[in-house]
Amino acid sequence: MLLVETILNKCYKFKSFIYRGSRIEKTEAGLQIVVDIFSRKNSYGQCSQCFKKGKVYDHLSVRRFSFIPLWGFHVEFSYSPRRIDCKSCGVKVENLPWCDGKSHLTNGLKVFLSQWARRLSWKEVGKIFNVSWDTVRVSVEYVVSYGLKNRVLENIKSIGIDEVQYRRGHKYLTLVYQIDDHCKRLLWIGQDRKAKTLLRFFRMLGQARTMEIEAICSDMWKPYLKVIKKKAGHALHILDRFHIMKYFNEAIDKTRRQESRKLKEEGYEEILKESRWTLLKKKKNLKEKQLANLKDILQYNLKTVKCYLLRESFQKFWTYKSKFWAEKFLNRWTFIAMRSRIEPIKKVAKMLRRHQPLILNWFLMKKRLSNGIVEGFNTKVKLTVRKSYGFKSFHIAELALYHVMGQLPEPTLTHKFT
């Protein structure tokens, strides 16, 4: 007959401790399996502070520790902790290898729940394994804390910086990602999108590691530009292609809305009605109906059409290999845009002139660097927020995002529970 103790000895065995006996108990929540743990005879205990071995002083009352559910049954360990007469620290409670401190949750259960918390919402994990939401939160916090202490922050050459809204009322997170070919992960999360927020990241990274950074990709948010120049002025700072083209799309959409209202007021045909995505999407991604609609719109001499054509002509800028010729093209394009008499597109041209040196840095990298990877990560951030039905505090958001996207090392167990 295969006993529970036999299974535990195969997958969750600890030196100087033995499983001796198991039983089923009836509780208000239902049936549960209780496994008794004993220390080996004449074995020394380990001090919980200095981790040195010492003689047994006395025993405390029996404590229960929650373990991974088995066949739908709640499982608990029952053990009477020893107090150790440590030569360095005095009389201390022994270190228990299956849990940390005074926690009633075993490390195995914490890692197990945290692995499921990557796949499902925390509420759903608690419901499936019959534990509270707070138990899942404690489990994720344990794994994230371990991962942050033990992760390697060396060989970081390229980083991407962006912000994302995580709550209503303009509540933002500043996110810093490593975007090297060999490693793509979330490095740091900060509350708000102020200059002092990003300063905390460089403080965490340290001066030595900051000096190893070769390239930084960001948007045009002024506080970020200011901090990057101050703390990582040696690195090649590139303004992101994605955000630059986003300004073009905003200019087209604003012009379209203004012109559409004007056409309606003057009694003309509403040719621009329901054409937003026809004008904003890439031509290769348009459906047949949208392509036909675009062909009709381009026949008219509208400001929206001029905006669209100016954006399409600017796409050639990204095909240049030489910074010299790219600069020539940029100067020519901004010259034409400033004489277009279209305010939204003139605003884009002014932005390009203002940030021209940082935009042209894009051509100094052998491998083109873009925040496209970062935007992919940001989509995952929004998915994590949506899956959790929003975060009520920054700390919970921080835990969840590090857990899902940080590629953090996990505590090693005697067996991999899935």
How would you portray this structure in words?
- This protein has 16 helices and 13 strands.
- It folds into three domains: 4-104, no CATH class; 158-240 and 371-405, Ribonuclease H-like superfamily/Ribonuclease H (Nucleotidyltransferase, domain 5, 2-Layer Sandwich), CATH 3.30.420; 241-364.
- 28% of the residues are buried.
- The mean pLDDT is 89.
- The strands form three sheets. It has a five-stranded mixed β-sheet with strand order 11-10-9-12-13, with helices on both faces. A four-stranded mixed β-sheet has the order 1-2-6-5. The protein has a four-stranded antiparallel β-sheet with strand order 3-4-7-8, with no helix packed on it.
- A hairpin with a 3-residue loop joins strand 7 and strand 8 (90-93).
- The chain has 418 residues and is α+β, with helices and mostly antiparallel strands.
Structural domains: how many: 3
Enumerate the spans where pLDDT stays under 50 for 5 or more consecutive residues.
Answer: none
Radius of gyration: 30 Å
**Strands in their spatial order, largest beta sheet:** 11-10-9-12-13
Q: Percent of residues in beta strands? A: 15-25%
Mean pLDDT: 89
Main beta-sheet strand count, sense and barrel state: 5 strands, mixed
Shape descriptor reads elongated
Helix content: 40-55%
Termini, distance in Å?
A: 24 Å
What is the strand tally?
13
Structural class: alpha+beta
By DSSP (H or I, 4+ residues per run), the number of helices equals 16
- Series of H and E elements: HEEEEEEEEHHHEEEHHEHEHHHHHHHHH
